[in-house]
Amino acid sequence: MNKFVLYLGLIFTIHACKNKLEVNAPYKDVPNVYAVLCAQDNKQIIRINKTFLGEGDANVMAKVTDSVNYQPNELTVTLNRFVNGAQVNASLQNKTVTFGEEVIQTSAGAFSPWQRVYTTTEKLFASGDYELLIKNNKTGAEFKSKTKALDSIKVGSLYLNFQAPPLINAHKLYPYPIAVANDSSKYLINFSKVNDRLTFYVPLSDPAPKAYIYQTTVRANYYDSINLPNGAGQTRRENFVDYNFLYKLNPKDKAVNNIYGEHIPFEIIAGDLAAAFGTEFSKKPSPTKIGEGFFGRCVYKLTFIITTGSLDYYNYLNFSSPSLNVAQEKPLYSNFENKAAYGIFTFKSRCMLGKRVSAPYSRFFGEDKRTCNYNFFYFAPSTSSTSAGGFTNLNCQP
Fold this sequence. Notes:
Elements: H1 2-16, E1 32-38, E2 44-49, H2 58-61, H3 65-68, E3 75-83, E4 86-88, E5 97-98, E6 100-105, E7 114-120, E8 129-136, E9 142-148, E10 159-161, E11 197-203, E12 213-227, E13 234-244, E14 248-249, H4 251-254, E15 256-258, E16 261-269, H5 270-281, E17 293-309, H6 311-320, E18 342-356, H7 359-367, E19 377-381, E20 389-393
Parallel strand pairs: 1-18
Antiparallel strand pairs: 1-2, 2-7, 3-4, 3-5, 3-8, 6-7, 8-9, 10-11, 11-16, 12-13, 12-14, 12-17, 15-16, 17-18, 19-20
């Protein structure tokens, strides 16, 4: 009987216990930061999101602007710079850079497209140690990260090889006028046959810190020629399309040695480039307004853009890439002190080399089947000593 009473008491005790499982732990403010700055940019943008907690559907909550954004003036974002341990100017204008706030609209995705970002137009330096400080003005919590600024590759160390002698420092010859003397044509890009190969040599960055990621973008600079209404003549509207190479990671594994030191070779084929440009041109309708007419467009220059990234950025990309393991859980990346915030603070750099195209390559865009549907014309140099030449519309060829 005593045992029966004991068991009965245990049953009543168990049923009297609270039967609700508390899944959510107490909320802790852990910002999610994407701060990849570039000293060559005119504007720096830092994205800072909240981590959010709730009992509803996380996918629905992520679409709510207040779930992912801090409130106006809730954060103070500053940047300081140090050289040999001493604090110096963080920008050309100020010792400390204080970021302002903007709300921008991003592409549709998993999160709210309305994002509060933190921006500055102050000019940063390409050297020194930078410290990012994010302070929550409501809680007093601070989040710090330090990184080294990354300088760009020097333009004079880049060179192109068009199955011909390297064009060293040819950038000093530009910009050329559209009409150039025949004896200068070897300095223009003549990439007018589909099997033409262009090798673009990118030197490994120096001095330290060395870049760890290299990416090349080939940009076709073009303009649309617009006939203005009421016989007011024509106007040119500048635009461009880009072809991005894949990242070259671990540059030491990709580098080659030549008389100019260690370089990373990027090779492109004219036909591949035309196909990539054709896809991008299909997204670029002629920018006419009411009453205007579209005369045609002309590619006049290729710009080679080399973007480099730090070792921290390389590590961040590896952490962010999809896992191929059966167990999909991956640690969240952080280079903030004590991992108090998720995300990254680092630098990237950019170097640009622009070269005008030859008349045959300009004509190529109007004749190649991958680009000829977009109403290209080209500059035809004159053989006359009294005429510079003129523009000719091209019909699409098979």
